[in-house]
C-alpha cells in the first residue's frame, strides 16, 4: 500500500495522508543548523550538536508518537485545526506533505481555509524559516486567527529531560514586538539565545507553556487556541514556549502570508547585553530582516534548489527504470548527505544525545558523499585521523563540537583503522588530490604529536599486521564492523556495555571479516606507497596482503562459505559446526569484494550459500540460524530476539557488500535483484509492511525469523545509504573513480539495453552512454571519448572543465 | 483556595478535584518496591532502584503533565472514561482521591457507574496491588467493559529513553491466562521479569502499545477502548504494554471487584526457564495467589494500617491546633519515611535516573526517621560511613544498589563528614545503642581496610581541623551544605558541573557555615569520647570546638550577622561589603543553633537581621539581595533567576534552622511563627499560589524577588522534612532524645496553655503533659514521672516497656 508518490520533476516525495505507518521525516539544513521535520510538522531543531545545542524540545517514543513540533493552529470561528493534522487531528478536507531537498511543505485545508507551511533552513543561516500562507477558499469573508507554537529546549537535551529540580526554575524569555527571545542561562555562562519572530504585527503572544495549553491539556487542545485569545504570558521558570497570535481577515480567494524565523544567535562576551539583563538583539534582528518579504523566502528556496541541483548533478543517470533513477539521482545521494552531516546522532530513532561521530561510520559515510562536496570530506578525514593513536588504533567515536575522542567508548574496535585507508583513498580517487597525504595530522588530538596522513594510513595498515591471532588472522578486539559480535566481552551483568566491558585477554579471538577488509583496502595502500616512490614499502605491504589472502582461504573458509571468526576459545563462529549462527553475511561480502577465493571458485560457492541460507523476500539476513539463546562468548548479537537487528535481521548496511561481491564474479542479474530488494523506492508499494519512509534506507528490516518480518526500523542514519550508493553507482552501473581517472566497469542485468550517466568528475562533465547490444552483464568491449577510442576502461581526466561524450559498449 | 481537605481520622488527604494546581502525588511501598501515584492515577513504579529497575514507563515534563500511569478505562455503551479523570478527561459526576499512608484510593463515577481504584504495595511484597471495584449506581442493568493499562519500561529508565535504535527491537512478552509477563532481555543477562495479572478470567488482552492505542492516538483515546474490543496483540519489539479486557454485567446496586497485581520477580539462574524461551512463572504465581480474594486485600490494608500506626505512635501530639497535630502526627513523619527511602531519587521533580544516596542528605534524612525504625537508620549509617575515605572526607553520593561511592561526583564537599557525627549521635540518643560505635566499617567500601565507626567519627571531626584556611575557619571545598555556593569552581563553560569542576586551589575559601556546624555537632563527639573513657581525646576535641567558636566570632561575624564565607580571593561573602548577597540564612541558623554569640548578644542580633532582611510572608529567603548577575567566584548560586532556588528562594530546608536558633534564645513565638509559614498544612488555603501538595514540604518556595512569589517546587524529596520535624518535635515542642534519656525543653508561643505528647522511647511509653500556667515560652519549672518529681529536665529511661505519666510544668 502506498501513502504518497514520488514527484521526480520537483525532487519531492508527496505524502497524501498524515496517517503514515510511522512519521515520515525530512531534514532541513546542510551546514550548522538542522531541523528534523515529519509529515505532520513534528520534530525539532538544533545548532551543530543535537545534544548540547538543542533549540526546541522533543519527546522521543511519546504517546502519541511524534507529538511536538513547529505547529500553526488555525482558529476559525470556534473551530480550530492544524494543517499537518497533528496535533489537533481535526479531519481535513485536503492534506498534502511534500518533502523536498532541504525543505518540507505541508498543506491542510478545512472548511474553506487553506494553510500552507513551507519550512526550510536557508543556506548560510542559523535558523528555520517557516512561511505560512493562509488562503480563503470559500465564497465568503473569513476572520481567522493563526497561533504559532514551539517549545524551547533548555539547550542541553539530556539535562533538559532529567534535571528537573534545577531546570524548572531557570527558564527565561524576553518579548519585544513580534519576537520571543529564549534566554535561559544566558545570564550565566551561555552566550547564545534563540528567538522566534514573525514579519507582521501580532495580536498577542504566549511564552509560558501552561498558560498557553492549560495544565492538563495536550497539544491537541491548547486553551489559548480554544479561546481564540492569547494570554500574553511571560515565562518564569517551568517551560518556556513561543506562540504568536495573529488575527486575519480574508476576502474570498484572498491569501496572506507570514514569515516566521526560529533562529539561533551567539554573541561575543563583550556584546552580550544591551542593558542590565536585557539581551543584545542586534544579530537576531539582522537574521529577521533577511526574511522580511515573500521574495526573500523565494530567493532562499531558489538558492537551496540551485545548491542541491549542483550537488546532484555530479552523478545523474537516465535509465528505463524510474525507481532506479530516483534513487540514484535524488534520494540516495540526499540521504548520503544527511548521514554525512548527522553521523548517527539525530533521527527519529537516534535521540541526538548519545553517540558522537564514529570513526568507522564517518569513513563509510563519506564514500557516498565525497563526490558532492569533496572539501568537506577532506576536512572530515583529517578530523577522524586526528583521533587515531600512535599504534594505529583509534577512538571509536569523537564529539563533533570538540572533535575530541570519546573516552567512554575508547578504542579497541580492530576494524576501525582500515576504514581510514578506504575513506582517504575514496577522496583521492574522486579528486586526484594526493596532497592530503602530506597533511600533518595529530595523534590523539595532540597538536604537539603529529605525523603525515600517509603515516597515519601506514599505522592503520600495520595495526592489523601487529595484531594477529593464533591462525594469523586479525584479532577482533572489542568488535569489528559488527558492533554486536563481542568475542572478548563476557558480560553477565544487565546494563553493562557489551562493547566496553572487555574482560577477556584479547589475543585469541580473530575476525575473518577484518582479514577480508584488509585484503580489500590493502591494495589502495600499496598504490599510495608506489605513488610516493616507496616501492619497497609497497612490496612489503603487498606481501602482507598476499599472505592474508592465503591465510583467509586456509583458516577462514568453512567448506561452503567464509567463516565469521574464531572466538576466545579458538572455536569457529559462523561454521557448520555451530548449532546456531552457522553462516554470516559479512565475510561472504567483504572477502569476495576483496577477490578472495574468486579464482578457486570459492567466492561463487560462498555467494550461492548466501542465496540459499540468508536471502529472503526482503533482503539478506545477517546470519542463520538466528540465535535463540544468549551466548556469553558472542556478546550482544545473541541478545536480540531472533530476526531483529544483528541477530538475523536484514541489516541493510551489508547487503550491498553482497551486491558488490556478485559484481566481482560477474553476476549482474543477482546484484541488481538484491539491490531492488532493499532500495526504498522499490518498497513503496509495501509501505504498510515496511513502514519506514519509501525514499530513504532504514538500517534494519526484520528478518525471516522475526514476528514482524519485513518491517523496517532505524531509518535515515545508517551506513546503508553510502554503501548502497557505492554498490549501485560504482559496482553495478560501473562508474568508478580511480586514481588516474574514471574507470568504467558495469555489471548489470543481462536484459538491460543500456543507460546514460552524466558524471561531473574533477571539474569535467562526462556524458556517458553505456550500451549493451550483446546483452551481457559484464565486460567492456570498447570506450570512446568524444568519438576517439581509448585503451582499457579508465577514462583519463582532462581536468579542463570541459564536457566529454563517452560511449561505452559492453560485450 | 483549597482543592481538598484533611481526613485526620483516616490519616488521609482527600482531593475532590482532579484539576489540582499540579499533580498531587503519594508513595506506595516501604521496603523494596515503590510506586509514585498521583491523584489522577499517574506515575510509575520500580524495584529498589528507580533507574535500573524501572517497572513501568513514565515521561517527565510531558504534555499534558502527568500523562501515564496505572489506568482503568471504563467502556459503557460507547462512552468511555477513567475514574481518575486523566487521561480520558471525560467529565465525572463524582471524583475523589484519598492519599493515605502507603495507599491511594481513587473513585470516579459517571452515568450510573462508579469505579474505585485502590492501590497499594503490601508489606513484604514486590509489587503493586490495584483493587478495582465497579458498581452500578443506576436503576438499570449495566453491561460495561473494563480495560486495564500499564506501559512497561525496559528496565533501565535512562537507556529506555535514549537508546531507541536498540530498544525498539528488544521488547518481549508472554501471555498466559489472565497474566501478561514482561520479559525483555530475560533471554540474556536479566534474571527478572514483571507481570500484570487479574484475579478473573479475561475477555481479551493487549500487549503491544500501538495495537492498543493506535499510532496517532493518545492515552485519552485508545482505539481498543473506543472500539470496546481488545485486539489480543502480542508485542514484538516497539513498546510492550499490558492491558486486560473484562466484560462485566451489573444489576442495579450490584458491584464487582477485580484484583490486579503488577509484580516483579527474580529467578535464580538455574530456575530461569520452564521450557526453551518460556519463563518460569512459579514465583509470579505465588504472588498472584496471595491476592486472590478481596479479603486478601483487606488483610493487606489492615497490615499496612497497623504498620503505620505503629510507626506513628512513637510520637503523637494532642494540641489545640489541628494543623500542628496533623503535621506532627501524620504527614511530617510520613514524608520523613519517604525521604529516608528515596533519598533524592524519584519524585515528580527527581527523575529517578540521576542522583544516588547523598552522604549529607541521608544523614539528615535519618534525623527525622530514626525513631520510627532505628534498625534501618543503623544500617544506613553503616552504609554511609563505608563510603568515607581514610582522611575523613567522603564520597558525596553512593548508589543504593551497589552501595559504592559515586565516582562521577567524587568527594570534596567539606561539610559532609560532620553530618555523620550528627546522624550517628541521633541514632544513639534515640536508642541508647552505643554498640554501633564499635562496628567495623570500611573506608572507601574496601572490606580489607576497616576501622570502628567511632574512628570514622574521629576522622570526620579532624577532617575539619586538618582543613582550615587563612582565618582558621574550615575550608569549604567544592561546596558546603549549599551545593550551589561554589567558591573553588570557576566555571565558564555552559553545561559544566559547578560542583565537580574544581579548578581553583582550594586552600583559601572558607565556610562560616561549616564552622557553625562544627561547633553544633562537636559536643556530641566530645560526649562520645567521654563515654568511651577517652577523656584526653574529649578535652582536646573540646579545645578545638572552643577555638572554632572564638574564630567564628572574630572572623565570621559581620557586625549585624554572621558572614557566609570567604571566597577564593579571601573576600567576604554574605557581608555588608557585598553589592548583592549581603546576608545568607545558613550561618545565622547554624551558628546560633551552636550557641555561638548567644552570650554576646550577637545571636539575637543575627536573628533580628534575618527577620528584617530575609523574612517574607512565605518564609525566609536564602540570601538578600538576590544575585542579578553571574559571579564566577560564587558558582551556581548566581545562575538562578532572582528569587528561585538557592538564589534568594525560600529554601525550606534551612528555615527550621532559624526556628531552632530562635528556640536557643528563647523566642518561642518567633519560632512557631516561622514554622507555620512553611508547614504545608498551614498553606492549604493558598494552594492556588503554593501549588504543591498541602500535606508535604517542598524544597523551595519562590522568594520575594521572584515573578511567581510563593509558588513552591520540588515537593517531597527534601531534607526539609527531617529538619522541620526536628525543629517542631524537639526544639519547639521540646521532646529531645538525649544520651541518658528524654530531655524535655520546650520553646513555644507564650499564649499556649499546654499540650500532651505520647512518646515511645526505647520501648517505654511516655505520656507527657506539658502545662504552661505562667504563659512562658521557655523554661521547665518541674517534671514529675508517675507523680514523682525528678531533678533537671532529662527523664530517665526505665526501658521496661512500661507506660509512664510525665507532667511538665513550664515557668
From TrEMBL, chains A, B:
InterPro entries: 6-hairpin_glycosidase_sf, 6hp_glycosidase-like_sf, Gal_mutarotase_sf_dom, GH65_N, GH94_catalytic, GH94_Enzymes, GH94N_CBP, Glyco_hydrolase_94_b-supersand. GO terms for molecular function: carbohydrate binding; glycosyltransferase activity. Keywords: Glycosyltransferase, Transferase. Pfam families: GH94_b-supersand, Glyco_hydro_94. Residues 307-734 form the Glycosyl hydrolase 94 catalytic domain. The keyword Transferase applies. GO terms for biological process: carbohydrate metabolic process. The keyword Glycosyltransferase applies. Residues 11-290 form the Glycosyl hydrolase 94 supersandwich domain. This is Glycosyl transferase. It comes from Xylanibacillus composti.
Amino acid at each position: 500500500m502506498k501513502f504518497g508518490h514520488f514527484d521526480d520533476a520537483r525532487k519531492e516525495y508527496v505524502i497524501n495522508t498524515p496517517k503514515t505507518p510511522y512519521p515520515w521525516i525530512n531534514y532541513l539544513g546542510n551546514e550548522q543548523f538542522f531541523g528534523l521535520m515529519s509529515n505532520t510538522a513534528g520534530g525539532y531543531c538544533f545548532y551543530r550538536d543535537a545534544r548540547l545545542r538543542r533549540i526546541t524540545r522533543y519527546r522521543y517514543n511519546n504517546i502519541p508518537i511524534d507529538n511536538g513540533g513547529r505547529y500553526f493552529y488555525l482558529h476559525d470561528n470556534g473551530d480550530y485545526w492544524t494543517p499537518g493534522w497533528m496535533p489537533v487531528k481535526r479531519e481535513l478536507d485536503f492534506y498534502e506533505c511534500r518533502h523536498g531537498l532541504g525543505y518540507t511543505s505541508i498543506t491542510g485545508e478545512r472548511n474553506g481555509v487553506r494553510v500552507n507551511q513551507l519550512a526550510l533552513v536557508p543556506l548560510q543561516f542559523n535558523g528555520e524559516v517557516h512561511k505560512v500562507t493562509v488562503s480563503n477558499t470559500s465564497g465568503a469573508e473569513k476572520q481567522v486567527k493563526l497561533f504559532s507554537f514551539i517549545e524551547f529546549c533548555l539547550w542541553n537535551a539530556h539535562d533538559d529531560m532529567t534535571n528537573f529540580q534545577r531546570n524548572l526554575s531557570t527558564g527565561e524569555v524576553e518579548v519585544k514586538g513580534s519576537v520571543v527571545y529564549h534566554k535561559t542561562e544566558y545570564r550565566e555562562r551561555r552566550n547564545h539565545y534563540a528567538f522566534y519572530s514573525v514579519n507582521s504585527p501580532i495580536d498577542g503572544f504566549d511564552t509560558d507553556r501552561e498558560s498557553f495549553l492549560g495544565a492538563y491539556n495536550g497539544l491537541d487542545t491548547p486553551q489559548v487556541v480554544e479561546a481564540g485569545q492569547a494570554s500574553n504570558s511571560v515565562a518564569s521558570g517551568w517551560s518556556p514556549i513561543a506562540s504568536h497570535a495573529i488575527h486575519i481577515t480574508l476576502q474570498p480567494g484572498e491569501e496572506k502570508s507570514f514569515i516566521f524565523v526560529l533562529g539561533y544567535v551567539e554573541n561575543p562576551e563583550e556584546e552580550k547585553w544591551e542593558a542590565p539583563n536585557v539581551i543584545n538583539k542586534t544579530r537576531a534582528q539582522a537574521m529577521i530582516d533577511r526574511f522580511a518579504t515573500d521574495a526573500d523566502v523565494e530567493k532562499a528556496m531558489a538558492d537551496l534548489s540551485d545548491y542541491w541541483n549542483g550537488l546532484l548533478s555530479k552523478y545523474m543517470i537516465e535509465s528505463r527504470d524510474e525507481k532506479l533513477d530516483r534513487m540514484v539521482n535524488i534520494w540516495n545521494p540526499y540521504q548520503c548527505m544527511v548521514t554525512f552531516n548527522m553521523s548517527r546522532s539525530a533521527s527519529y530513532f537516534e535521540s541526538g544525545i548519545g553517540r558522537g561521530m564514529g570513526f568507522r561510520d564517518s569513513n563509510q559515510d563519506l564514500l557516498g558523499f565525497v563526490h558532492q562536496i569533496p572539501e568537506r570530506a577532506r576536512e572530515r578525514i583529517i578530523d577522524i585521523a586526528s583521533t587515531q593513536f600512535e599504534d594505529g588504533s583509534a577512538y571509536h567515536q569523537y564529539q563533533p563540537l570538540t572533535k575530541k575522542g570519546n573516552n567512554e567508548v575508547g578504542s579497541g574496535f580492530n576494524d576501525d583503522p582500515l576504514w581510514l585507508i578506504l575513506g582517504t583513498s575514496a577522496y583521492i580517487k574522486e579528486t586526484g588530490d594526493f596532497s592530503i597525504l602530506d597533511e600533518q595530522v595529530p595523534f590523539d588530538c595532540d597538536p604537539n604529536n603529529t605525523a603525515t596522513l600517509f603515516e597515519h594510513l601506514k599505522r592503520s595498515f600495520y595495526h592489523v599486521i601487529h595484531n594477529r591471532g593464533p591462525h594469523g588472522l586479525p584479532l577482533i578486539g572489542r568488535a569489528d564492523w559488527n558492533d554486536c559480535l563481542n568475542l572478548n566481552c563476557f558480560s553477565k551483568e544487565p546494563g553493562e556495555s557489551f562493547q566496553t566491558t572487555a574482560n577477556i585477554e584479547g589475543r585469541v579471538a580473530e575476525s575473518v571479516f577484518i582479514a577480508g577488509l584488509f585484503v580489500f583496502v590493502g591494495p589502495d595502500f600499496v598504490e599510495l606507497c608506489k605513488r610516493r616512490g616507496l616501492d619497497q614499502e609497497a612490496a612489503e605491504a603487498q606481501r602482507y596482503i598476499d599472505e592474508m589472502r592465503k591465510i583467509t582461504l586456509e583458516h577462514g573458509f568453512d567448506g561452503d562459505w567464509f567463516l565469521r571468526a574464531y572466538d576466545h576459545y579458538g572455536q569457529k563462529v559462523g561454521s557448520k559446526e555451530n548449532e546456531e549462527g552457522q553462516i554470516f553475511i559479512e565475510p561472504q561480502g567483504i572477502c569476495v569484494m576483496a577477490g578472495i577465493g574468486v579464482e578457486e571458485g570459492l567466492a561463487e560457492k560462498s555467494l550461492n550459500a548466501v542465496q540459499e541460507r540468508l536471502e529472503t523476500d526482503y533482503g539478506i539476513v545477517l546470519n542463520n540460524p538466528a540465535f535463540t539463546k544468549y551466548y556469553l562468548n558472542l556478546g550482544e548479537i545473541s541478545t536480540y530476539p531472533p530476526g531483529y537487528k544483528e541477530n538475523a535481521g536484514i541489516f541493510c548496511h551489508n547487503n550491498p557488500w553482497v551486491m558488490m561481491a556478485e559484481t566481482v564474479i560477474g553476476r549482474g542479474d543477482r546484484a541488481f535483484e538484491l539491490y531492488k530488494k532493499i532500495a526504498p523506492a522499490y518498497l513503496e508499494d509495501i509501505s504498510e509492511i515496511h513502514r519506514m519512509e519509501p525514499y530513504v534506507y532504514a538500517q534494519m528490516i526484520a528478518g525471516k525469523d522475526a514476528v514482524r518480518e519485513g518491517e523496517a526500523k532505524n531509518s535515515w542514519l545508517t551506513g546503508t545509504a553510502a554503501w548502497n550508493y557505492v554498490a549501485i553507482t560504482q559496482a553495478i552501473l560501473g562508474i568508478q573513480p580511480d586514481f588516474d581517472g574514471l574507470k568504467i566497469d558495469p555489471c548489470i542485468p543481462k536484459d538491460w539495453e543500456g543507460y546514460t550517466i552524466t558524471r561531473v568528475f574533477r571539474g569535467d562533465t562526462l556524458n556517458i552512454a553505456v550500451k549493451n547490444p550483446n546483452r551481457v552483464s559484464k565486460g567492456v568491449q570498447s570506450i570512446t571519448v568524444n568519438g576517439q577510442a581509448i585503451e582499457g576502461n579508465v577514462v583519463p581526466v582532462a581536468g579542463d572543465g570541459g564536457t566529454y561524450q563517452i560511449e561505452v559498449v559492453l560485450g
